[in-house]
Every structure is written in structure tokens, then in C-alpha cells.
Amino acid sequence: xxxxxxxxxxxxxxxxxxxxxxxxxxxxxxxxxxxxxxxxxxxxxxxxxxxxxxxxxxxxxxxxxxxxxxxxxxxxxxxxxxxxxxxxxxxxxxxxxxxxxxxxxxxx
Length: 108
Known about the structure:
- By secondary structure, this protein is an alpha+beta fold.
- It has one domain: Ubiquitin-like (UB roll) (Roll), CATH 3.10.20.
- It has helices at residues 29-35, 69-75; strands at residues 4-10, 16-22, 54-59, 85-87, 100-104.
- Strands 2-1-5-3-4 form a 5-stranded mixed beta sheet.
- β1 (4-10) and β2 (16-22) form a beta hairpin.
- The longest helix is centred in the N-terminal third of the chain and has 7 residues, at 29-35.
- The relative contact order is 0.30.
- Its cofactor is [2Fe-2S] cluster.
- Residues 3-108 form the 2Fe-2S ferredoxin-type domain.
């Protein structure tokens, strides 16, 4: 039986929604957020070059792979980046991320 990955998303207005993502979908968190109609521009198409998929990890950050150099470089350019900031395009979905809680930033 296929497992489901549950991710809680807080939007820029404080609204909270839980996403249920089938395990094995082989997408990035950015792709899932865009498909779920969050305001993510993803101008660079997931190459860690634009930071328009900036999120904050509220819970479960220890489950994520470490930041890579490209992601660190982009986050350094953001005035509102914090120590829990990540780029959603650099987070590949996997069952270990079940229970992750994030905050997305709008591009309005």
C-alpha cells in the first residue's frame, strides 16, 4: 500500500492547509506547492537561481538534507531569510518528510 506524505502549509495570510502527497511522486516541494495553487513564481524552474520559492521550515527541519552551496548563496541574497529559510525547489519529497510544517511567502 502506498504511503502518504502530510505537509502542513501556512500561507502569507496565516491560512493553514494540510497537503497529502502520494509517496513516490518524485517531485520537489516547489512543484507540489505550485500544483496546489500557492503563489510560488519559481522563475528559474527549480535551479536555485531566483529564490522565488523561499519558505520557512517551522517543524521538521532536521528531516531535510543539508543546504547545498547554491541554496546557501541564494538565501544570502534575501533580506527576510532566517535560520529556518529554505528554497522549496531544493527539497525532494520523500516519506521522511511526513509531518513537515512550512510557511510560504507570497510573490504579490
